[in-house]
Amino acid sequence: MSLRSNPVASLNDDIGPNIRLELYRLQVEIRDCEKRAYDLFLQNMIKGTSHLSLGQEAIAAGFGVAMKKGDKSFCTYRGHAHTLARGVPMEAMLGELMLRDIGLMRGKGGSMHLTSVEHGVMGSYAIIGAHLPIACGSAWRAQYLGEKDVSVCFFGDGTTNIGAFHEALNFAVIWKLPVVFVCENNLYMEYTLNADVTAVPSPAGDRASAYGLPKIVIDGNDADVVYRTAMAAIEKARNGEGPSLIECLTYRHSGHSRADPGKYRPPGELERWLEKDPLKIYKQRLAEFNVDAAQVAAIEVESKRKVEVATELCKASPSAPVELLTADVYADGGWAWRN
Amino acid sequence: MAELSYRDAVIRGISQEMRRDKNVVFLGEDIGAAGGVFKATVGLFEEFGPLRVRDTPISEQAILGAAMGAAMTGLRPIAEIMFSDFIAVCFDYIANEMPKIAYMTNGQVKCPLVIRTGNGAGVRFGAQHSQSVENWTMMIPGLKVVAPSSPVDVIGLMAAAIRDNNPVIFHEHKALYATKGEVPDGEIIDTLGTAKILRAGTDCTILALALMVPRALEAAEILAREHGINAEVVDVRSLVPLDTQTILGSVAKTGRLFTVEENPRLLGWGAEIASIVADEGFWDLDGPIVRITTPHIPLPAADHLEDLALPNAARIVDKIRRVMNG
Predict the structure, then answer these.
(1) Which residues are paired to B25 by β-bridges?
(2) Measured between CA atoms, how close is A125 to chain B, in angstroms?
(3) For B292-298, what is the mean pLDDT?
(4) How far is CA B52 from the centre of its chain?
(5) B118: domain CATH number?
(6) Are residues B174 and B248 in the same domain?
(7) Are A339 and B106 a contacting pair at CB < 8 A?
(8) pLDDT of res. A12
(9) Between chains, do B70 and A141 touch, taking CB under 8 Å as contact?
(10) Is B103 in Cβ contact with A328 (below 8 Å)?
(11) Handedness of CA B205, B206, B210, B216 (dihedral sign)
């Protein structure tokens, strides 16, 4: 590895080239996959709604790499990135957005409910704040059974103003649960500037002290920073030292959802944040650390190829059989409510 | 065989299952060290310890959310919502989360849990602590809903609910906690989705639930003794799944159907059953289906007004007698 040629960088390198390449790979693949999702919308190949994480890739990548197999992710309707970051194949994610049989839930859930239990993705929840208490419950199970997994719960800045956020934080602290709460502060709660409707400047960070937690506000566009913070919080949880609340500053490059062109943003804001694009930052970082440029280029080529393959697989996939309409309403697989 | 109160039956049902399965855990407000505000959980904290019987803050969303997260990942939690009126505070979990997770995930996730809640009137608590809200939960696909009327049913249905792999709403009736009944020794396990014919009769069928069951039975005795009407009384017990076969069978025998419902009038559980019987048992009917319910009002605290609101034996007798005698 070419790091040897840069002694200063290698001395300070606590992350190392292999993990850096993995952080970059995830960010590139999420970016390419989200862009493809957007294109497929424009082609009317994806129905319903969708909430992209363009610009927020570093958070999903940083946590995705820091989490171990068996750790649990609890996501929101903006959950494509976090689902991919746990190793879910692109075609299963895109296929669910396209509501095809190949999708993670064979089209029964759609883009807002991505779930893959085998990858530890315990659901994507579309009612704001609902999954924070649910993540507490998963963490309680681990604590009660002596299992060593950590539950990580992702949510947006708007979530910090709903009751379930506060109930969950109090709960997690009093029971010292192995859960990590990750606020992706992209400045806007749907179409409204979060600062206009929130009592404190840091929507998550400034609430932490109310629950006896340290204020942690980080650059959510720098995957190294996210990764280091995630490792520390996950280790703390795994060691039985209780929960963390982490606010990651970031920005979504697209609107809130498919229907939103983001016209409420002041001129120049998007451009300023594009300068801080997590992929741009990270590619530069790799160069600073003299990570093999050929490997970096190979990741970019391979990502594009994977997106193409996944897209074709999804397009070729049929819709799910109509029998699914009434399947799995109850745990016996059926829907019978009477005899 | 021993006489047991409905309250003690709750304790026995929970402890029977907690002894059997270490994955059964219990959480709620004041359930542990305090033994429950209705004293229906006394002794559980002492027997099973603070890690399995966990007192919570006043955080209904956190209680149900945590129960759900634990259920999804391997435990079988029992969550108490102290008064069923408080379901409104945490309705997201009951309406949007628990009943839909299996369906939305194409069966990847299951949610085996029980929500126990003190339902119903008769104890002068006023409009926000007295409602019969079983229909709030009956209307949501993916939930199961039971409301036992006797101690033995409390134990058996509690055990069945805890062993079931779905979210089950378990409505305990506040005004029944002090009532007593004979309970056999040993393990008791019942079946969800089964109604019980408590009094056989030939002239009409009376369907009742929870507190309305003893009142329907009392009315049936008066109807037989004073009016020559031999009523069959069916305890519905389980709203979802609904034992329509027992109900339709009873109507086929008697030709007349009355429901006795504590819930306010609109969209009470009896309306759904009336619709089913009208569809599938119409040619067995000798007269209109009649629903006897609480009027469509909030409940007052004053004892004489609350008594006036709920169906009682006298009102049931009067209604049935007048309808039957045309």
Answers:
(1) B77
(2) 8
(3) 98
(4) 25
(5) 3.40.50.970
(6) no
(7) no
(8) 65
(9) yes
(10) yes
(11) negative
Same domain flag for B14 and B92:
yes
> In the numeric block, which tokens belong to residue A172?
């997690």
Distance (Å, whole) CA B116 – CA A20: 50
Residue B247: inside a domain: yes
A53, B72, B208 from B323: Cα distances, Å = 65, 50, 18
β-bridge partners, A247: A183, A217
> How many CB atoms lie under 10 A from the CB of residue A43?
8
| Domain extent at residue B210 | 196-324
**Residue B96 near residue B107, CB atoms below 8 Å:** no
| Residue A320, amino acid | A
Does residue B191 sit within a domain? no
Please give the tally of structural domains in chain B: 2
d(CA A114, CA A100): 13
Q: Which of A116, A127, A338 sits opposite B242 (nearest CB)?
A: A338
Tokens of B307: 């008594």
Judged by CB atoms closer than 8 Å, whether chains meet at B59 and A127 is answered as no
Q: How many domains does chain A have?
A: 1
Asked if pLDDT for residue B260 goes beyond 60, the answer is yes
Query: Of the listed B129, B171, B173, B296, which one is catalytic?
Result: B129
Nearest CB among A74, A109, A133 relative to B105 is that of A109
Residue A155 has phi, psi (to 5 degrees) of -160, 170
Are the C-beta atoms of A262 and A254 separated by less than 8 Å?
Answer: yes
* A194-202 CB contacts, 8 Å cutoff, 24+ apart: A194/A157, A194/A158, A197/A161, A198/A157, A198/A160, A198/A161, A202/A247
> Cβ-count burial of B55 within 10 angstroms (0-12 exposed, 13-18 middle, 19+ buried)?
middle
B48, part of any domain: yes
Domain carrying residue A151: 2-326
Inter-chain contacts counted by CB atoms under 8 A, chains A and B? 165
Chain B: closest CA distance from residue A265 (Å):
32
Q: At what angle do helices B313-324 and B212-227 cross, to 10 degrees?
A: 50
CA atoms within 13 A on the CB side of B190: 23
Task: State percent of chain A over pLDDT 90.
Answer: 91
| Rounded Cα distance, B216 and B279, in Å | 25
How confident is the model over A136-189, as pLDDT tens digits? 999 999 999 999 999 999 999 999 999 999 999 999 999 999 999 999 999 999
Query: Whose CA is closest to A25, among A272, A307, A252, A248?
Result: A307
Spell out where chain B has E strands. Answer: 2-5, 24-28, 53-55, 76-83, 113-119, 144-146, 167-173, 180-183, 196-199, 204-208, 231-235, 238-240, 257-264, 290-294
Q: Answer yes or no: B304 catalytic.
A: no
Taking CB atoms and an 8 Å limit, are B242 and A144 in contact across chains?
Answer: no
Phi and psi torsions of B273, nearest 5° = -65, -40
Cβ-nearest to A137 among B70, B101, B166: B70
pLDDT digit string (tens) for A102-132? 999 999 999 999 999 999 999 999 999 999 9
Across the interface, do B65 and A137 touch by the CB < 8 Å criterion? yes
Cβ(A163)–Cβ(B61) below 8 Å: yes
Closest residue in B to A120 (Cα) is: B73
DSSP string, A259-287: T---TTSPTTHHHHHHHT-HHHHHHHHHH
Q: Which residue in the set A117, A137, A339 is minimally distant from B67, CB to CB?
A: A137
Q: Does B10 fall in a domain?
A: yes
